């Protein structure tokens, strides 16, 4: 799936849809119904802002780097590094969605 994201780097709409699948796959790994429902509810509210944030200069490339770090830590089975990378990705996504430029 990450390879598909890399291929969609020049198409923000396509990237957005693949990115959503990527995030949902990570969430499914948690196997936590409450968390999944909470995230699903929040995603409905935030979807437009998240989509618009991908149009900001450099955000797609930054997002790909963040995803790569998450995948590397998952592959290395390093739970703490994965958590930290996911938190950084979440913070960066929120900052991009909140910024006006």
Question: Helix share of residues?
Answer: over 70%
Number of domains: 1
Shape: globular
Q: Encode the helix/strand succession as letters.
A: HHHHH
Radius of gyration: 13 Å
- Low-confidence regions: none
Structure report:
- The protein has 101 residues and is mainly alpha-helical.
- The chain has one domain.
- The chain has five helices and no strands.
- It has helices at 2-7, 12-30, 33-53, 59-75, 79-98.
- Helix 2 (12-30) runs antiparallel to helix 3 (33-53), helix 3 (33-53) packs across helix 5 and helix 4 (59-75) packs antiparallel against helix 5 (79-98).
- The protein is globular, with a radius of gyration of 13 Å.
Task: List its traits.
single chain; mainly alpha; globular; 101 residues
Topology of this protein?
Layout: H1 2-7, H2 12-30, H3 33-53, H4 59-75, H5 79-98
Helix pairs in contact: 2-3, 3-5, 4-5
Task: Explain briefly what this protein structure is.
The protein has 101 residues and is mainly α. It has helices at 2-7, 12-30, 33-53, 59-75, 79-98.
